[in-house]
């Protein structure tokens, strides 16, 4: 359910960004009456889309992995290394979420001159979507543990 909502939000954000930028170009160069806020909204959307895309990639297990070296280890060692890597990944992403929250706290009092809203709206996507990424990593990790236990009992 979370994954589906993420993809819907990503698609809507992309459509909105393309529409805003196209309208901005049209108004600026055809009507000579620029929409000054369209680029700022597009920047806000691209920040959110970046971290949302990372979360979706964790959900789909599509981040780059280089496991050619690990393949040379015996099966038991590979399983231990994979557990360590997954736990390390969760730790790093959770820490990035923490840093994103600290960054959010520093930007919440700043205001965008064009939009007149808090810069915190731009940076709030970082801690939220890093939390989503941790969720997806843990769900995949737990499902992999369940699958490996099933294959060992068969």
Structural class: mainly alpha
Q: What's the assembly state of these chains?
A: single chain
C-alpha-based Rg, rounded = 21 Å
Unreliable runs? none
Q: N-to-C terminal Cα separation, in Å?
A: 31 Å
- Average predicted local confidence, pLDDT: 88
Domain count: the total is: 1
Give the amount of beta strand, in percent.
under 5%
Main location: membrane
Function: Part of the tripartite ATP-independent periplasmic (TRAP) transport system.
Membrane topology: Multi-pass membrane protein
Protein name: TRAP transporter small permease protein
Tell me the layout of helices and strands.
Elements: H1 2-29, H2 38-59, H3 75-107, H4 120-123, H5 125-153
Helix pairs in contact: 1-2, 2-5, 3-5
Give a structural overview.
With 154 residues, the protein is mainly alpha-helical. The chain has one domain. Helices cover 75% and strands 0% of the residues. The protein contains five helices and no strands. The protein has helices at 2-29, 38-59, 75-107, 120-123, 125-153. Helix 1 (2-29) runs antiparallel to helix 2 (38-59) and helix 3 runs antiparallel to helix 5 (125-153). The longest helix has 33 residues, at 75-107. The mean pLDDT is 88.
